Amino acid sequence: MEFVDNTNCLSLFEKKHLGLLSLLDEESTFPKASDFSFANKLKRQLSGNSCFKSEKEGTFKICHYAGEVTYDTAGFLEKNRDPLHSESIQLLSSCTCELSKHFASVMVADSQNKSSLSWHSVKDTHKQSVVMEFKAQLFKLMQQLESTTPHFIQCIQPNSKHHPRLFEHDLVLHQLKCCGVFEVVRISRTCYPTRITHQQFAERYRFLLLRSIASQDPLSVSIAVLQKFNIPPEMYQVGYTKLFFRTGQVAALENAKRQMLLGTLHIQTQFRGLHSRRGYQRLKKGAMNLQSFIRGERTRIHFDNLVKRWRAAVLIQKHTRRRLAANMFNDQLNHVILLQSVTRGFLARRKYKCLQNEKESKASHSIVQGNTRKNNSESRICHEMNGHYPHEPVITELQGRITKAEAALRGKEEENVMLKQQLEQYERKWSEYEAKMKCMEEAWKRQLSSLQVIIYVDFFYVCLYV
């Protein structure tokens, strides 16, 4: 498989005695060395490497995996020696802080020890340059990485403007190419990157099988799962303790697992929905029964109240009618009594007058009869004396009685005529009273019927809305 090999670039930096770091450390040991002489040495020693390109005026280029980078040798030797100026040591020794004074004394002691050492010790001190320290730290880091199983996190810069939610596709693609992500993906696809034990695989995908098969040992369960989902044999390898999968096979199993879980969730949702709907229907039916009972009880109570009100209204109407009828009867009775008293008074006065007149007529008649008797006795005596008998006075007396009887009869007839007229007047008044009573009764009936209609309408609306 083809991939970008960075061995030449690494040898350019790390090659023993002829690498860039070794040449920089060697040039730093010469007292008369300069940055220009260091650039010429690099040009002589490294011109044969394809990753090195020499430039003018002490500059050179190195072809890294991400591209060419230009370096300037100005200040390389000074930075590599990393000397500490005497003024800095004097400044630290003059500080009031005890720690700074301790650092200054240690550095002075180190410088004195270096000056008294032999050439071999001086050579060892030169190894403590920046480049040597960097190589030692890098070697230590590589030892730690080789002794562990590290996982790297490669950060990708989304854009060069440092704005959120903005992606520059060319920049991201360039970084992925430079980091070797595509090569890593190709390498992982050609091998078996996914490795899982039989126990873990069986615990994860056991539920996809029948219960009889799922109860077997983990190896049998793993093989049964692979055969059920038709995984090609070239896409996996079965070991003694683990299963090895190529890229994308576990995703297919996870997809099948997700589909199974979705189906299970769908069945659970349907069952729970059915259970909830049945519970809701039961609660709804119970609530409706309770509501109907409460509404019926309230309606019955309201109907009882309406019946009581209707009975009270009927009782009030009855007492009102009785009162009105009693008042009317009392008025009519008073009028009748008044009429009777007037009539009886009139008749009594008339009778009294008749009796008085009769008495007066009797008194005058008795006087006349006395005078007549006296005259008759005298005339009878005379006639007897003369030999005559009294026949004419008897006839006249009878005639007077007849006339009186006729006069009394005419008076009685006139009295009867007057009584008839008064009776007709009383009958007319009574008929008028009866007509008024009928009109009042009809008005009371209409009012009563209207009140009953209003009560029935109110009762109907109450029953309808309650």
UniProtKB/TrEMBL annotation:
GO terms for cellular component: myosin complex. Residues 138-160 are annotated as: Actin-binding. SMART domains: IQ, MYSc. GO terms for biological process: actin filament-based movement. The keyword Nucleotide-binding applies. The keyword ATP-binding applies. Keywords: Actin-binding, ATP-binding, Motor protein, Myosin, Nucleotide-binding. GO terms for molecular function: actin binding; ATP binding; cytoskeletal motor activity. Belongs to the TRAFAC class myosin-kinesin ATPase superfamily. Myosin family. This is Myosin-2. It comes from Zea mays.
